[in-house]
Write a structure and sequence with these properties.
Growth Hormone, Chain: A, 18 helices
Length: 410
């Protein structure tokens, strides 16, 4: 990544992923306030926290997002999706019913469903195998630093001004990103063409491939774990650890920040190992498998009595998760290649984010019926371990799949 144009493009995508996950995670920061304001149960709160993932996952499983990205200018697709999800965030601040909030969260999912297919299309075309670890890690860092910043800022601002004002200002203010994006978005060979889409593999051909099946399964497991933290960690710190709102904001944001730092360092280091002759299969799978396996350190977080020890274990857990997440999409982009990147990413991310549907809902159900968080931590740890096995033993060699070109009739 030596050219100014590549650095500028990656910087814009980093900022976008940063904003993307502030918008996605901000509901969890105000969860206890919204629950009190709307007088809803923990079960209904879990449904509300999962609403985003209903549309987000379905549109990608159905390949609607991948189809759009593969056939239209990825820059304009990304701009349109961003406008929709920012507007949904802003209007959340003026919603006064559970049904309207639920609808707006589903609208947020529609807008954000095109993000990762666009990322994969752009990165698989513009960055080589030895560059994708760091490129993907920086985008992934944005998805972790975003919640860190949003949790910290949101926790303090909501405590002073309320959750409604925060949503309105955030949703309307972030639209400024569109100005530099429309000026510098990728054009020409950096975006999908109709020829690429026609010549690429079919959806069924991708879905039947072993590596696609296990990459989607592994993402489901890892997303369950991450969304469990993203949506319920603030509430856990407040209700079970009895942290005040501002204290919760500090430690939850620090946990997300640790993931962002870890994924950036791990992405850089994995690229260096490959540049020095390391096999992509060994390097990428080692980072993904070991990182996700050691994320099970989250389990003793719910067991220890000392808040200090619990916070320390939480930070170590988040560092391990960052080691995993740095190489997740580098694996997918190498396997898919430019011709299949949009479709493969869409399906994988759609199936993977069903974990985002299940995790908030199931955690809410478990907490309501058990009265505490420990069983939910057990489930999250077990699912993370299953995800590590999927990446290490399920996915085949990390090299581009040799899909046969499809030829159009004359």
């Amino acid at each position: 990544m030596t050219s100014h144009r590549e650095r500028r493009l990656l910087a814009l995508l980093f900022v976008l992923s940063f904003l993307n996950y502030i918008d996605r995670a901000n509901l969890s920061v105000g969860a206890t306030d919204i629950q009190r304001d709307l007088s809803i149960s923990s079960y209904k709160l879990g449904l509300l926290l999962s609403a985003f993932f209903w549309t987000y996952a379905v549109l990608q499983i159905a390949n609607v997002s991948g189809w759009v990205v593969d056939r239209f200018n990825a820059g304009w697709v990304l701009a349109g999706g961003f406008l929709l999800w920012s507007a949904a965030t802003a209007f959340t601040g003026i919603a006064h019913t559970f049904a309207l909030l639920f609808t707006l969260r589903m609208a947020l999912g529609i807008g954000e469903s095109i993000a990762y297919p666009c990322y994969s299309r752009i990165l698989s075309t513009n960055f080589s195998e030895g560059q994708r670890g760091l490129a993907n890690a920086l985008i992934d860092a944005g998805t972790k630093i975003g919640p860190a910043f949003g949790t910290l800022l949101g926790g303090f601002l909501m405590a002073r001004f309320g959750w409604r004002a925060f949503f309105v200002v955030l949703g309307s203010g972030t639209m400024l990103w569109l100005i530099p994006w429309l000026a510098w978005m990728p054009r020409g060979k950096e975006v999908a063409t109709r020829k690429d889409a026609a010549d690429g593999p079919g959806l069924l051909e991708i879905c039947c491939h072993r590596s696609a099946i296990f990459s989607a399964t592994g993402l489901f497991c890892s997303n369950y774990f991450w969304i469990f933290l993203l949506t319920w960690l603030p509430a856990y710190l407040e209700t079970e650890r009895h942290f005040a709102k501002h204290k919760m904001a500090v430690f939850a944001s620090l946990a997300f920040l640790v993931v962002g730092v870890s994924t950036t360092l791990s992405g850089w280091f994995s690229d260096r190992l490959i540049a020095r002759g390391g096999a992509p299969t060994r390097v990428r799978k080692s980072f993904a498998g070991l990182g996700l396996a050691f994320s099970t350190l989250v389990l003793p977080v719910a067991l220890v009595r000392s808040p200090g020890v619990a916070v320390g274990l939480l930070m170590l857990t988040c560092f391990c998760y960052g080691v995993f997440s740095s190489n997740l999409w580098a694996i997918t982009q190498t396997l898919a290649g430019p011709r299949a990147a949009g479709k493969w990413t869409s399906v994988q991310n759609g199936v993977g984010n069903l974990g985002g549907v299940v995790a908030p809902w199931l955690t809410g159900w478990v907490v309501q019926h058990s009265g505490h968080f420990y069983p939910a931590f057990v489930v999250a740890a077990a699912v993370a371990l299953a995800g590590a096995a999927s990446f290490v033993f399920g996915i085949g060699p990390i090299r581009e799949v040799d899909f046969r070109p499809r030829r159009l009739a004359a």
